[in-house]
Each structure stands twice: as C-alpha cells, then as structure tokens.
Amino acid sequence: MSETSSSPQRMEDFVQMSALLTGFAAGTIAPSLDPVDLKSTLFAAAEKGAGDAFDRLLDQYAQLAGGKPVSQMTPAERQSIGESLLGLDGQPSDPQTTATARSVMRLLYLGYWYPIDGSAGAETVVSDQAYVRGLAWRAMQSHAMGFSTWSYGYWASPPPPLTDFTGNPAPAPPADAAAEVPAGTAAASLPAEAAAASTLGQGKGGQSPADLVGGR
Amino acid sequence: MNGKRYDVVIVGAGIAGSLVARELARRGKSVLILEAGPETPPTNRETYLENFYLAAAKTPESPYPPLEGSRPSAEPAPRATVADTFGSNVEPGWPEKVQSDPDAFIYDPVKSYLLQKGPHPFASTYERVAGGTTWHWLGTSLRFLDNDFKMRSVYGVERDWPWGVDELLPYYNAAESSIGVAADAATQERELGEIGLRYAPPGYQYPMQPILTSLVDEAVTGGIGGATGFVGFEGLGVEVTPTPQGRNSQPYANRRVCAGNTNCIPICPIQAKYDATVTLSEAKQAGAELLSQAVATRVVVGENGAVAGIEYLRWQRDGSGTIERTPGTAVGTLYVLAAHAIETPKLLLMSRRDDQGALGHGVANSSDQVGRNLMDHPLYLSWALFDDKAWGYRGPLSTAGVESLRDGAFRSQRAAWRVEIGNEGWNFSIGDPWTTVGDFVLGTNASQLNPDTRTLFGDALVAKLNDVFPRQWRMGFLVEQTPEPGNRVTLSTDLPGGAAFTDGLGLPRPVIHYDLSDYTKLGFVYAEIFARDVYRRMGLRCYTQNPKEIVGRGGALVANPTWFPLAPEWRQVFASLPPELKAPEVTNLPAAADGIPEGFQYFGAGHVVGTTVIGSDRASSVLDPAQRSWDHPNLFMVGSGNFPTITTANPTLTLAAMALMAADQIAKQLG
User: Fold this and answer.
1) Chain A residues with CB-CB distance to B422 below 8 A
2) Could you give the CA distance from residue B94 to residue B100 in angstroms, rounded to a whole number?
3) Contacts of residue A181 in chain B, CB cutoff 8 Å?
4) Do A151 and B555 touch (CB under 8 A)?
5) Cα→Cα distances A168→A22, A158, A163, B426, B457, Å
C-alpha cells in the first residue's frame, strides 16, 4: 500500500467508501466537527480485523472512485462501485476483500466487528460509541437501545424525517415495499390519525439526531 | 458478626429484602442484610451501563457481574443467565443423555450455572448483586385478580392462597408508593374491574400519572380495542390497557423522568425505572447495615427448633484474582430469607443435617416442599409486520397490554395469559437489528425478510431497513404455569458426580427438573389462535417461528430444548378453525399444514416463582399464611418463591406487597 494507514487520504477513502456502502452521508459518518472521532475507531477496528484485505479493499475503492466524493457520483456510478466492492458484478473478485466490505458495513451499522472468515459467535463490540452511533438505529429513525437523548413522551409522536438521520436525500422506497402485504386479507385498520401522523414528520418530542453528538 | 446480635438478619438485598429492612429499620429495629454479590454505589451505574454497551450478547444479565464468559465453577456468586441457554451450549443427543446419564444436563455445565435435567429447561434468570433482579426488571406492576387467589375453589385447579386479595390491598398501595408506579386507577378499574381487579379505598390514586402509550399501542388499539368474538374467549372483550409501570412519568423519589431509552431490560441508563437500590438506600439511611459479598451457606437451627444463626462466607478477590474467603455467623432474633426462588431453597437444602430427623430434608422442610413448585411464565412470542410504520424501537420496552382475558371460565380447562405489547420491534423475537442487518448485508434470510437472499448497499439498503424496522411488532403471551411438585430445585452435591459441579466457593449448584403441564401447554394453543385472529383482523403478515431444531454445539442441528410438540388431541382445535385462521399469512405455516402447528417454542419471562410456597396446611406448604416457616417460629421468607400460584401477572408488585405484609408481621412478633 502506498499510504500509511492513518494518513488523511486513507481515512478519507474509508469514509467515502463507508458512505457509498451504507447509504449514509459522509458528513454523518465523519462530521466536520467531530470530537468523538468515531471514524478512527472504526478504521482501526477494520484494519486490525481484516489486515491486508482491508488495505486491498481501500486500494480498490480509491482506484474505482478516482478521487470523486460519493456525493458527486451519479446513482449508476455508486451502483457500479458498490457491486464491484461486494463482488456482485459477476466479475472475478477477491473473497477476502468482498467479505471485508461486508464486515465494514456491519461495523458502521452495528458497531460490531464480525470476523471476515465468518466464524460464528466471534463478533465483538468495537467501542461504546461505535454501538450507540450505529447506523441501524438511524435507519429506523430511532436511537440505540440504551442511548436516548430524547425526552419523555417522544414515543407518542412520529420521529423526524429519515433525511435528518442519514444526511442524504430520501431514498426511493424499496420496489417490493408492498410485497409483504398478503393478498386476500382485510385491509389494515390503523386508526386514521396514526396513518396520517406517519407522514407528518417532526414529532413534538423529537429532537434532531444531530443532538446526539456530544454524548449522553 | 462481631458478636453483635441483631433484631433481624436478612439474606438478600433485592426488592423483598430491602423493603423488609427499610420497614424494620424505620421502626427502630437493628437490621443486618447479607448480600451474596457486590454492593453498588450509584456511581457504578455507569460501569454497568458500559458493560452493556460493550457486551456482544446484550442479554438481561450483560451489564452485571460476573460478566458473560465467566465460569460458574470459578465465581463466588454465579447465577443463571440467558447466555447459559444459547444453542452453542447444547450437545446433539441431549434428550437421551439427560435421561441415561445422571451427570448429563441440557446445557454445558462448564458454562451454565443451573444444572438442567429437563425434560425442558427453566428459561428464566436472576441477579446476585445488591438491588437484585430489579436491576433488569421491565417495571410492569400489575395487581393480581380476585380469582387468582382461589383457583382451586373457583376452577378446581392449581392451589388456593391462604388469604385473598382483600388482605393484600393495603399492601399493594404501599408497594406502589415504594416503587413509584405510574398508572390511572380509574382506567384500570373501568377496563378490568369486571375480571376482578380491585382497589381500596374508593378513589385510590397511583403515585404518578400513567406513562404515555406508544404509537405501536395506538395501532394495536385501533385494530382490536373493544373487539369480541375471539376463539375460546366467548363473552369476553379485548381491551388494550396502558400498563401500570414502575417508571417515572414525572420526577419522583429524586429520580428522573423516563427518556424512552428502550432498554428497561437490561439496564435503565438514568434510573427512571425503579430498582431496589432505591429501597436499599432508604433502608441504610434508616440504620440497616449491609454486608455485601457475603454468601449465606447455612441456616443453623438450635436445639429448640428456632434458628440460631446464619453462617456465611465473606469473599473478595486478591490482586491475582484468587478468591479469599472469611467465614462468619450472623445472629439475630428473627431471620428473613430473601434470596429469590432458586437461591433460597438452595440455602435451605444446603442447611440439611444428618439423613433423618427434623432436618433430614433440610431446614424448614418437614413438608418436603422446599424447592418444589418452581414456576415461570413460559412466554409465547408471536411477531408480525404492520402494513404502515408504527415506529417500534422507541419508548419504554412495553407500555400497554391485553389484560382483559386474564380470567374467565376457561381457566378450569386451560391456562390464562396476558399479552405484553412490545415496543422493541423484533429485538426479542429474532435479535434485531443485528439479524436483519446481517441478512441484507450478507444475502441471507434468517429474518425471513429477505426471501430472495439479496445483498443490498447504499440507498437501497437504507430504504429496505427503513421500510421493515418501523413496521416490526411482537406480542408476548405470559402463560400461567401450574405448580407441580416435580418442577424443583435440588443440589448438585446429591448427584453421583456432584463434587464436580460446585461454585467458586465450593458450594453446591442448583439442579433443575422442569416441565410444562398440559394445562399450561393448552394456554399456548389459544395464544397462537388469538395471535392469528389479531393478524387477520388487522391485515398483518405473521412471521412467528417455532423451530423444532436449533444450531447446537459445533454447528450441528440439535433438538430445541424449549420446543414442545402439539398434543395429538389438540390438532382438532386447529383443524376446526375457520379458513381465515388457517391461512399462511396469519400462521406463517405452509398451506399444506392446514393451520396445524407441529409445536411451540417458549421463552423465559424472568419470573422465578414457587419453591417456598405459603399455604394453610403445613403438610403441603413451606410457609404459613404469615410467610413464616411452619417448622421454625423465628424464620420468615419473602419474595416470589412464596407464591402458591403464578397467576398471569408479572410478580414483582405482588412480592413487594407481600414483603411489606411480612414486615408488619415481623415487627409484631418482635414486639
């Protein structure tokens, strides 16, 4: 590898690659004002866990991205790079780097490092901050279990919009979003207020997830 | 201890022991509490919280010592944990081995503190630290119903209690004040008065306004609130009732208001949820003394049949981690065992002397009932996806339930239950968000949400997770378990290889024999049918799984220890259901199954009950109606071990009320 592991360029590649794979904005993963510096913790965990495969994955990403920030890529460019990193493009791929890409995704989403050899029950929590700032909780427009900085009663109102949590524009709903609705059963009978409220956005008890920065 | 004689010596600093200690200390009595585990000053909440954040398996026990990965044989105060029951601790062929080899158990005895002989495992756990299991309780604070106390008289099943709800009512009020319960009595009485919920005096008010219910509760209320006509519940209606909860809806007892951490179990980060360190602190302020890291090893009975002392081992670890132990004896006028429903009978059985005579079966055991009638609420989980987002994973873990079916004529035939409505998506059900994130990253389908085994990334991954997580929902049915003498706690030292199965102090470990009766199992049948009808009425797709086999040690498939088959005679119950209650959408079964399940899986509810039951007949109970040993006039016990039946309600409020009742009796006896 041409850069030292902690070099700013290497870190930037890691943040950009993480943004592309997770669907969260680079500024959400690594805010410009970043006293927590979670990115360094996550980088170190991936480096320790995957070793050379992590280096090769970053090399591959740097080559594919060509220095272009994810926010400036077209959807097709992001799709192409993601498929390459994950070995989904039908091309020959390195099973160790594709496994590392998946472990990095789970690292960002959950704060756990899952060994790239897939060994069961060997996953570890990287740090308390990695857990409480896991992106899975943001994807559900909530907070990590055991880390609410919201206030009493917030759960009686819908959360702020998803874009507040991802830092990205709202994604298109999944193509199969309605596929789970079984045919031939009664229509859902949610109360009209609840159905309406789910589109209203910011709830009265909700705070912006940005308030999470700074800790409990 | 130091030659001092106390008015009262208490074993166990959980909610029951701490309440008794506080009440007696406030009345000027000298009180000593022996606590097996470490004492916990308030600042150590941070330590416990950090343990939770860093635990890979976020089990109810994960914040508390000894931490996951420790060995029960090396710990001075080990206890049962959910991690003990992981599939990786189950050997292939265990059902046969447990029967043929007296030293074989369902779970690997190297990892599992409880030595489980089956045929099914006891699936609930507890803590051995100051504050006890309330550290990880949910906070649900339901009163028992009128008929709960007289199941034998009214329905011809189970046991009667030696007294009724009226005797307990003033103590319920006092317990609700001690815990700090948030609820509206008028709402509770309106929805549940008909099935025997009681309050006194008229106009009684809970200490706090009710906790706000969740959007999940709102969706369920919209779907089934006020509905009738559920199979097996003729004449009964469904109400979705806000749950009385031991968490703050306003500042109370110098503790903060609930911030909805969605983490009541394993640990409330801000102590908005009551735990017994609150009461323990009050007891100490009133003068009670606490001796922590002091494991009671023997209840000593004098010549006159009265208890003369409690022997204990005080332990600490030296710099190298070696356990140092110092023996002592605590002496008092009266003694109270409050070590919860597995450690208390263990202590009584350990105190056995000689093979015959008064103490041949152990202390307080002339009835041979000590350790018997072990109960739990075997928990049936059923889970589904809402059509629209109902926003789970927010707020307290549960804020409402279906309580209106907890009593009815059907109880002469089968177990009743309450339904706990979960606010945590499929976290309990399948271990989400970990499982579903793993599925869409790895292209697997453990969650059943990725049938095409797609790998997603970027916007598509966010969109998918945002689509499914806020729609996840589960119900938990707390099924009442019958008291059975064969469900019991015994000692490892009575096994052929018993000397190999001791704890880090060289003390015996609990051996558990446990099974579910047909009465209890039939409660599962009607829970499953109810769940189907809920999904049908709300148009939801069911995802419940009842795996007959799980991944065991070394990756091999093994029989799931918490699965039991549907009895052949119950097939007809399902076969005769209308077609809409047999459809794959509401059953998650293949159409060819015709809606008939192979069997059910249960979970532990964390409700450790029975083993030192009260009764009006000394031949069939351990304690008299005053919660005093029939055999030893100065020995009391408190806690859920005293319950003759488990009923359908979470036990903590009632055990707290009974502890306060016992405190009055003890004070009276001390004079």
Assistant:
1) none
2) 10
3) 387, 539, 541
4) no
5) 11, 20, 6, 26, 14
B114-122 mean pLDDT: 98
> B interface mutation test: which of A28, A79, A142 has the most B CBs within 10 A?
A142
Q: pLDDT digits over A108-151, tens only?
A: 999 999 999 998 889 999 999 999 999 999 999 999 999 998 99
Question: pLDDT value at position A6?
Answer: 66
The answer to whether the Cβ–Cβ distance between B387 and A190 falls below 8 Å is yes
The answer, for A156 touching chain B at a CB cutoff of 8 Å, is yes
Looking up tokens 């589960």, which residue turns up? B474
Task: Record the tokens describing residue B96, joined without a space.
Answer: 């046969």
Report whether the peptide linkage leading into residue B483 is cis, meaning its omega lies within 30 degrees of zero: no
| Interface touch B259/A151, C-beta < 8 Å | yes
What is the interface pTM, i.e. ipTM, of the complex?
0.96
Pairing of strands B379-385, B541-542: antiparallel
Contacts of B579 (CB under 8 A, 6+ apart): none
Query: How far is B524 from B140, CA to CA, in rounded Å?
Result: 22
Is the distance from CB of B59 to CB of B265 less than 8 angstroms?
Answer: no
Q: How far is A137 from chain B (nearest CA, A)?
A: 8
Name which of B215, B388, B537 is nearest A186 (Cβ-Cβ).
B537
- The CA distance from A202 to the nearest CA of chain B, in Å, is 13
CB contact under 8 A, A156 and B214: yes
To which residue do tokens 């400036």 refer? A72
> What is B217-249 written as a DSSP string?
HHHHHHHHTT-B--TT-TT-B--EEEPPBSB-S
Place of tokens 């190999």: B500
What pTM did the predictor assign? 0.94
Query: Do A156 and B455 lie within an 8 Å CB cutoff?
Result: no
CA B16 from chain center: how many Å?
Answer: 15
Give the SS3 label for residue B36. coil
Give A 34-63 residues with CB within 8 A of chain B: none
State how far the Cα of B175 lies from the Cα of B170, in Å rounded to an integer. Answer: 9
Say if A75 is an interface residue toward chain B (CB within 8 Å): yes
> What is the rounded CA–CA span in Å between residue B278 and residue B288?
14
B457/A86 Cα distance (integer angstroms)? 9
Say if residue B279 is exposed, middle or buried (CB neighbours under 10 Å; 0-12, 13-18, 19+). Answer: buried
Of all helices (H) and strands (E), which one includes residue B327?
strand B323-337
Instruction: For residue range A11-34, list pLDDT tens digits in order.
Output: 999 999 999 999 999 999 999 988
Size of interface A-B (CB pairs under 8 A): 228
CB contact under 8 A, B424 and A149: no
Find out whether B462 and A28 touch, Cβ atoms under 8 Å: no
* Average pLDDT for A179-192: 35
Confidence (pLDDT) at A176: 61
d(CA B60, CA B85): 13
- In terms of CA atoms, which chain B residue is nearest residue A191? B222
Q: Do B463 and A145 touch (CB under 8 A)?
A: no
Residue of A nearest to B399 (CA): A155
Pull the structure tokens for residue A152.
């009493």
Tokens 């532990």 — which residue? B604
- Residue A201 contacts B, CB cutoff 8 Å: no
CA distance B659 to B312: 23
* A85 → chain B, closest CA residue: B457
Q: How far is B220 from chain A (nearest CA, A)?
A: 8
Helix (H) or strand (E) holding B422: strand B417-422
Which of B209, B203, B200, B204 lies closest to B182, judged by CA? B209
Q: Residue B43: its pLDDT value, please?
A: 67
Which tokens hold the place of B13?
A: 């600093």
* pLDDT (tens digit per residue) in B124-152: 999 999 999 999 999 999 999 999 999 99
